[in-house]
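Need a sequence for this fold. Nothing fancy.
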């Protein structure tokens, strides 16, 4: 608590520290830690918190397709290896579904949301 960020008022920092040390916050933190440890292959991204616009500029200086963006954020840098078995399965399942839905030579949408939701596990979160 003694070494807060220089840009934040001390009373705000202390208030946050007290909130983070309280029961409800600690319970949520413990639950999240257990979930991350139990499922290390889930929700692994290689890019950190980077916006879609930034990715599109870095990737190809054009808007990337959804699949290009997924690969960029779910493959290890400098390799063609996905960060997890789950990421590989989702990408392969989505590719198969797109091939089944759209005949070769017909235009495909950048993202078929229904196919993506099914490939990613069937729950749409927003």
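Here you go.
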């Amino acid at each position: 608590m003694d070494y807060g960020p220089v840009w934040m008022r001390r009373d705000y920092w202390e208030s946050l520290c007290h909130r983070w040390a309280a029961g409800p916050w600690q319970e949520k933190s413990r639950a999240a830690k257990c979930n991350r440890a139990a499922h290390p292959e889930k929700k692994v991204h290689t890019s950190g918190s980077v916006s879609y616009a930034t990715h599109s500029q870095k990737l190809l200086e054009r808007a990337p397709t959804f699949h290009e963006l997924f690969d960029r954020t779910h493959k290890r840098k400098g390799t063609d290896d996905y960060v997890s078995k789950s990421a590989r399965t989702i990408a392969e399942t989505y590719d198969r579904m797109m091939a089944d839905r759209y005949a070769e030579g017909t235009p495909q949408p950048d993202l078929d949301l229904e196919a993506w939701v099914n490939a990613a596990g069937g729950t749409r979160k927003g």
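For context: The chain has two domains: 1-38, 52-120.
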